[in-house]
């Protein structure tokens, strides 16, 4: 007798992989900021779009539509696998796609990479069906790492800059007071010593 396994229908596979980016899937692109790193958990969805456990032993790949605008990779977070996106340059309508080895439907999300933050859209609710059929990146649980700000200068050059600024402020104060004749001249301020 021939092997007669049921063929999965599109309904069985409808929500396979999804990037869960900043709430439910929207028509508009999600926004990330240049220099920002976003970690987006991958989750499985059933045919109703509800989150279910990922298949055991599944592996994932991710790719952007333009590698020059972002870098992407797969990482492990407390809840399981995640896509890590680092924004490099401004871009519009950048597509990030995640796929798995178990044959779930792949997921894609559109992103705009901007130089400044913008407001995010509100979230919507989804229907319920408990059988897992898809993956999703849980963007609501994304962890953002802001770009590093340069540290203030330190050392002898920085001390000299502070001393010079204090001397200029002192000279302005003495000069203004000296013109009116109300303050005696003050000695120059010495730079701090280490």
Give the helix/strand layout.
Layout: H1 10-13, E1 17-19, E2 30-33, E3 37-46, E4 51-52, E5 60-64, E6 70-77, E7 80-87, E8 91-100, E9 107-114, E10 132-137, E11 143-145, H2 156-180
Task: Describe what this molecule looks like in 3D.
This protein is of the alpha+beta class. The protein has two domains: 10-145, Sandwich (Immunoglobulin-like); 150-194. Helices cover 15% and strands 35% of the residues. Strands 1, 3, 4, 6, 7, 10 and 11 form a seven-stranded antiparallel sheet that branches. A hairpin with a 6-residue loop joins strand 8 and strand 9 (107-114). The termini are far apart.
Short account of what is shown:
By secondary structure, the protein is an alpha+beta fold. The chain contains 2 helices and 11 strands, in the order H-E-E-E-E-E-E-E-E-E-E-E-H.
Straight-line N-to-C gap: 89 Å
Overall mean pLDDT: 74
**What is the CATH class of the largest domain?**
Mainly Beta
Percent of residues in helices comes to 10-25%
**Low-pLDDT segments:** 5-15
User: What sequence of helices (H) and strands (E) makes up the elements?
Assistant: HEEEEEEEEEEEH
Number of strands: 11
């Amino acid at each position: 007798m021939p092997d007669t396994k049921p063929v999965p229908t599109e309904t069985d596979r409808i929500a396979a992989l999804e990037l869960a980016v900043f709430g439910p899937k929207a028509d508009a692109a999600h926004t990330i900021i240049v220099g920002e790193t976003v970690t987006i958990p991958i989750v499985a969805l059933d045919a109703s779009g509800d989150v279910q456990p990922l298949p055991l032993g599944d592996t994932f790949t991710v790719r952007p539509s333009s590698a020059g605008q972002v870098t992407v990779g797969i990482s492990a977070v407390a809840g399981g696998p995640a896509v890590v996106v680092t924004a490099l340059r401004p871009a519009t309508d950048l597509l990030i796609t995640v796929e798995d080895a178990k044959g779930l439907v792949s997921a894609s999300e559109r992103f705009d990479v901007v130089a400044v933050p913008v407001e995010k859209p509100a979230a919507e609710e989804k229907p319920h069906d408990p059988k897992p059929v898809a993956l999703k990146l849980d963007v609501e649980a994304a962890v953002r790492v802001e770009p590093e700000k340069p540290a203030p200068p330190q050392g002898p050059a920085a001390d000299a800059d502070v001393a010079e600024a204090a001397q200029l402020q002192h000279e302005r104060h003495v000069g203004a007071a000296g013109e009116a004749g109300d303050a005696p001249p003050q000695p120059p301020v010495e730079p701090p010593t280490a």
